[in-house]
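[step 3/7] fold_predict: job queued, chain A
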Amino acid sequence: MRLSTSMIYDQQMRGISSSQASWLKVGEQLSSGKRVVTPSDDPVAAAQAVVLGQAQSQNTQYKTARTFATNGISQEETTLQQVTSVIQQAQTVVVAAANGTLSDDDRASYATQLTGIRAQLLNLANSTDGNGSYIFAGYKTNSAPFTADASGSVSYTGGTTAITQKVDANRTMVTSHTGSQVFMSLTSNAKAEPDGSTSEANIFNTLDTAIASLNTPLASADDAATTAASAAIDKTSRGLSNSLNNVLKVRSELGTQLNELDNLNSKGDDTATNQATEMSGLVDVDYTSAISSYTMQQTALQASYKVFTDMSSMSLFKLNG
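[step 4/7] structure written:
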């Protein structure tokens, strides 16, 4: 077989181009820090990296969701801490107002205190977060959940579904309870009325009972009126105790969830670390190996240049030029 000058030239150029491409590829890996820059570099590793990347994105999304959940739960807990304090103040006033020797002026003074406490509770029940959304309105966050009619009676007009957040692949938790769950509900062990009927669940109605009774003069009242007034105070006392227990139950749930979120964050951080390590093993360059390969490819390229130069000076080229 005869070898033409052009054939030898083409073969040498292909060798140089191949060596140069290999050398540049290793250089790209060293500069980028990635062994797998394109899927063709390692199809199997590239495919695994895509799946792992999706898992990393999901883990990051859940971490963000837990941040929002923690903020929402913390805001509710802070508000309910204040609610707890206000209810306890009301209990103190009711206990003092139960004294049967009080004058009508003293009773009216206690009624005024309870009216102020009721206003505080209503304000807390209509609390908003930093974005102006109502905390206890469920998904109807744009309007106040508690409203008062012309007579002053308070009712809940917020959403009926508590706000939830998916914080992990298999975990969804309540991040904001509805106002009805907090201020108008009773626990399963709530104290019943003496006649066996269910106690008042609406804390505002509970306070209204005592306020109305304390504003009623007893100086010239008969025994029936005095007994009714005492019964009203007793009813308010039971109602406040039940409402406080319900608020504490909600707070206990919130505290448990905050602890759970801490655990989920710790787990998520461990998962992120493991995923990053796995991803590095798939696509990151091994610098020791890459530097060695870079040196070898550079030597091979230099050798290709040398061979081409030497062959170009042979007589075959000159005779057939």
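[step 5/7] annotate
The longest strand covers residues 163-168.
The two ends are 19 Å apart (CA to CA).
exit 0
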